Task: structure prediction
Amino acid sequence: MVRENKPPALERRVLHFIREHHLVSSQDKLLVAVSGGQDSVCLLHILVKLREELDIRLHIAHLNHQLRGAEAEADAQYVSELVHQLGISATIEQRDVKNYQAQQHISLEEAAREVRYTFLAQVAKSIGTDRVAVGHTIDDHIETILMHLIRGTGIRGLCGLQPKQIRNSLTIVRPLLPVSRHDTADYCHHHQLAPRIDVSNLSLAPLRNRVRHQLLPLLQSYNPGVSEALLRTARSVSDDLAFLDKEIGQLWGEVAQKLENTIILDKERFLGLPSALKHHLLRASIEKLLGNLKDIEARHIEEIIDALAKPAGKRLNLPGGLIFSIEYDKYLIGTDPSILSPFPSLGAECQLKIPGETLLPGWRIEANILSREDFTTTSFIKGSVKGLRPFTNYSSPSPWKERGTEGVWLIDNLFTAHFDRNKTGDKLTVRPRQPGDRFQPLGLSQPKKLGEFMIDIKIPQAWRQRIPIVCSPQHILWVVGWRIDDRVKVTDNTKRILCLKFERY
Result:
């Protein structure tokens, strides 16, 4: 009789889970995070036994967080001896988590997590892989669900831990996710392994420990099957999210697009979506920008939803330095919505050379003085305005839709304008808008505030400070790209014409 050489029961479960979720590929290098505790030691021992069957090569990573003094040093020594016995290469280092916490002004738990995953990403890159295995078990999965419920992270938080998760450039895999903490303890005892005990896991200061030692036992007193109930909820939510993710994938390009470091949402189409898709698309947009949703709670999404009907110019600050801003026909999510403006950032006030050429950051300005006789009625457009052509594929609102206004003299586009030279004066400058600015838009009989004009004409708020303003010592002559001042328009009595042409370069 042929005896089958099958791995023991727990190893078979892990092997099946790895293959079911495609956690590793043949001939992959796999980084294994080993703290020295029972879960990570169990994971390492199982992967060593399965490495030939999986056709993978292992490398161990251990980080001393410098939080537990001699105990942490003993953990590092234990891992060093363990990998030596197993004949596996390893990277064992230490990082000052307390110092990082002070610099970033975050909780100790968050600081330790960020430092740890930065270390793992660096080690993974150094050995030529993007994949790290961690020892999270089903107990960690349940605790994570409860922590997300407490923090109010929304529907995605109810999924808990996933078999595979991408964190920036690192793919985190969890081969022990179907395994309980009790299983790993039995495995270590059966194989006479002696993992380290981290006494800090008994402290009630971290939220996870309070959930583990206080909340979960209390819930079990109400429902002994609460863990399975939470797992059923997580599976159900995962199915719903898979459907929503598929729907969201079809909305990219139609409702949402990513440009630079900003997500642009078409306002009309977005408002027409069902509520569930609105929430999910917002989360997906933020995740694309931040790489994760760890700091995004349900209240942040609800704050955005509540702001959707606010007027253009409204902004919300979000975690991760993101800003949600409302424009006339778009919503923007990004670190700096103004970068989507077709106008370059303006510096200090600059005097124009007339006649001649003036260079500003991103602009070339050409000034010419012409006689009335230099023109024919076919060499320029009188009484009509062509729409603004944006410099990127980020579409802009039409800046001016009136037609037939007397005195509009334009060549090709709204970045060339003509003025009565005798009315403009000699000392003209270009600058950004300033508080209290007023001008008399072409066609109006009275001046108005520049800010009101920009609102009326629906110039996006993020653009306003970048729009060049041509001025004389007396008043504004031209809001470049939109309208000249009525007091300097070309009329039938004009003898000399000042032509200003703005070009991007």
Notes: The first strand starts at residue 29 and ends at 33. The longest helix spans residues 226-251.
